[in-house]
């Protein structure tokens, strides 16, 4: 078994079907190598400076990690708000929220000699499991080639169907994500996965981004990782994904409301209504306004 791979021009429906069947799918060469190299070059100083600050049993002892992605690497913006990412997040998350958000943005560089990361599911952050509801999806962009030898992300195909419990399910049937630089591994929040051991003599680098239902707390605080003075340079869509928008259409159903003053003071072009209208969330739905609210 492998993680199914698709070319960048494959219909979204095929990728969705593979993700529903296996919990994960790879889209190869979604960005060109030069774009991946640019992101990596921008992240390099931060990885060298702060990469080992997050060393732990789970994160590894020879793995550089960094989270302030958009502060250091504005070239990562097109990856984070990529149309394919949005299309797949729409498919899996939009049925369960008014809009979704970035959960975390993490550069991960597994250095030679690192051992396997424990297999895990990302949605265990949240103490709920609702049948048929995915709480989040993840996207691992390969910023170097990913191979079985260098620690390409390990995935347990079909594990999104394992019931969540205190007992570790059988996750021995993992496979390595093998993909060229510039590809993306898409996986569900319920899919068991983890970094691989790097038995090669070169680093394996990736950018792993998660997207969660808009009514959940974000895993990483994006307002601190990407404060307004930095966020304002990005598109309305990306700012909304970072959390600079509200969740919900009707006034009384909104959360994430900002009542501290004009957003325009630091953003010329606030995310609403641009993104909201884009998502069909621009207007109060008829059934809500007809009832005068909730
Ligand atoms: O580096 C990888 O391939 C996966 C990392 C991961 O899943 C995590 O740190 O949560």
Topology:
Elements: E1 5-6, H1 12-22, E2 24-27, H2 33-50, E3 63-66, H3 69-72, H4 77-80, H5 83-93, E4 100-110, E5 136-142, E6 154-155, E7 175-176, E8 184-188, E9 193-194, E10 204-213, H6 222-225, H7 228-231, H8 236-242, H9 271-278, H10 286-290
Parallel strand pairs: 1-2
Antiparallel strand pairs: 2-8, 3-4, 4-10, 5-8, 5-10, 6-7, 6-9
The structure holds 2-oxoglutaric acid.
Describe this structure in words.
By secondary structure, the chain is an alpha+beta fold. The chain has one domain (5-290): Jelly Rolls, CATH 2.60.120.620. It is 26% helix and 17% strand. The protein contains ten helices and ten strands. It has a seven-stranded mixed beta sheet, with helices on one face. A three-stranded antiparallel beta sheet has the order 7-6-9, with no helix packed on it. Helix 1 links the parallel strand 1 (5-6) and strand 2. Helix 8 packs across helix 9 (271-278). The longest helix is centred in the first third of the chain and has 18 residues, at 33-50. The chain is globular, with a radius of gyration of 19 Å. The termini are far apart. Mean pLDDT is 89; it is low at 282-294. The site of 2-oxoglutaric acid (AKG) has 9 residues, from strand 9 and strand 10.
């Amino acid at each position: 078994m492998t993680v199914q791979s698709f070319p960048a021009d494959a219909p979204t429906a095929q990728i969705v079907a593979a993700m529903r069947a296996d919990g994960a799918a790879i889209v190869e060469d979604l960005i060109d190598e030069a774009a991946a190299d640019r992101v990596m070059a921008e992240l390099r100083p931060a990885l060298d400076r702060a990469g080992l600050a997050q060393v732990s049993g789970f994160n590894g002892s020879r793995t550089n990690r960094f989270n302030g992605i958009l502060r250091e690497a504005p070239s990562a913006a097109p990856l984070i708000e990529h149309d394919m990412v949005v299309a797949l997040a729409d498919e899996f998350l939009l049925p369960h929220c008014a809009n979704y958000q970035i959960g975390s943005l993490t550069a991960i560089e597994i250095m030679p000699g690192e051992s396997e990361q424990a297999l895990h599911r990302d949605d265990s952050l949240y103490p709920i499991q609702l049948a048929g509801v995915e709480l989040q999806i993840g996207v691992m962009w390969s910023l170097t080639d990913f191979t079985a030898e260098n620690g390409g992300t390990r995935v347990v195909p079909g594990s999104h169907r394992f019931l969540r419990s205190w007992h570790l399910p059988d996750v021995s049937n993992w496979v390595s994500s093998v993909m060229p630089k510039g590809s993306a591994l898409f996986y569900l929040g319920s899919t068991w996965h983890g970094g691989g051991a790097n038995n090669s003599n070169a680093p394996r680098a990736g950018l792993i981004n998660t997207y969660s239902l808009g009514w959940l707390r974000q895993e990483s605080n994006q307002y601190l990782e990407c404060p307004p003075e930095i966020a304002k340079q990005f598109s309305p869509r990306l700012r909304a994904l970072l959390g600079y928008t509200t969740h919900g259409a009707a006034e009384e159903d909104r959360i994430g409301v900002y009542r501290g003053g004009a957003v325009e003071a630091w953003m010329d072009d606030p995310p609403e209504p641009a993104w909201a209208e884009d998502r069909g969330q621009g207007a109060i739905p008829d059934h809500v306004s007809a009832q005068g609210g909730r």
